Amino acid sequence: MSSVNVECVVKASALIGEGPVWEESEQTLLFVDIAGQKIHRWSPTTNQIQSVETGDTVGFAVPRRSGGYAAGVGRSIVAVDWLTQKLTSLVEVDEDKPNNRLNDGKVDPFGRLLAGTMGKEQQGSLFSVASDLTVTKHLSQVDISNGLDWSLDQKTFFYIDSLSLTVDAFDYDSNSGCLGNRRVVYRMEEGEGLPDGMTVDAEGRLWVACYNGGRVINIDPATELFSWRWSHDRRRQEQTQISCRT
């Protein structure tokens, strides 16, 4: 057993803090407070937090090549001018589902924005938005569209619909952005909670935050083995080798 020390470095008192993005050029950490309706930017150098109010729930914020950010606010993809704190709507999604809202979103290595929705009473979807603002719906009948990322060779798209209790993979066409051949990479074990946010590390392994599970799990998609889990409430690392059920 080896211990893991957890240190709180950003004391933002967020209601629902999510979507961390490290901005290498600015040396700042970008993240959102969904229910608090704010985008935050934290500097580890100054330990200061700057914020922009969004006026509605905000599921994600990502840097734009042209400057500023793109964010999912309500059902709209908006452009955020950080200096003026002005938000400009670019496109809307799920127009037929007014109770839905955008949740997690991320940009692929080719500049497409993939973002999903969730609803209080209606089911969500998974969309992509191209640089010309063309919107493509890839999935419907989604309960809670959540974590997403790509394999290191950019040929596989990993995706989480939280209530399915699985981490799924798709073949990914980098030229068209199309998805295909959906399969299960990992199925959550009892007591692990709901799969939520996700990222891929430099070795191609998946890190999945577990809502109501108090842990982050690490998955090797190449072997479809659950390699180890980290439980926050116990503050310990348990070495395991559990075959992924499909």
3D architecture notes:
By secondary structure, the chain is an all-beta fold. It is built from no helices and 21 strands. The protein has strands at residues 17-23, 28-33, 38-43, 48-53, 58-63, 69-73, 76-81, 86-92, 100-107, 113-119, 124-129, 135-142, 145-150, 156-161, 166-172, 179-187, 194-200, 206-211, 215-220, 225-231, 236-243. The strands form 5 sheets. Strands 17-18-19-20-21 form a 5-stranded antiparallel beta sheet, with no helix packed on it. Strands 1-2-3-4 form a 4-stranded antiparallel beta sheet, with no helix packed on it. Strand 11 and strand 12 form a beta hairpin. The radius of gyration is 18 Å and the shape is globular. The protein starts with 16 loop residues before the first strand and ends with a strand. The model is unreliable at 225-246 (pLDDT under 50).
